[in-house]
Structure to design on (108 residues):
């Protein structure tokens, strides 16, 4: 169960990083209007009349929610693991005593 959540957590974090990197900031519209005049009117027609901001914002909010849920569940499951104070406590030892055979003569 932990490994499934960990794989989901890593996948969501990579998707979230990629999604954040493709979004443009709020100041990008002001810079585009000052330099180009019209801005990027053609790019907003791909995602609808509002542009890509609502789609990307909703997707990033959904991924952020999943990321926090997987973070909390991983923290919960890590607290349930058996804790060992020392490495020597987890090792079981068996005592092996070797005895010399009785038919050997004594050494001088």
């Amino acid at each position: 169960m932990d490994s499934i959540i960990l794989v989901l957590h890593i996948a969501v974090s990579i998707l979230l990083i990629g999604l954040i990197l493709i979004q443009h900031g709020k100041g990008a519209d002001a810079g585009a209007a000052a330099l180009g005049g019209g801005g990027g009117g053609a790019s907003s027609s791909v995602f609808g009349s509002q542009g890509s901001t609502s789609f990307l914002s909703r997707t990033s909010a959904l991924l952020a929610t999943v990321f926090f849920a997987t973070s909390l569940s991983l923290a919960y499951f890590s607290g349930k693991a058996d804790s060992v104070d020392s490495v020597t406590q987890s090792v079981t030892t068996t005592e092996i005593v070797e005895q010399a055979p009785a038919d050997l003569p004594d050494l001088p």
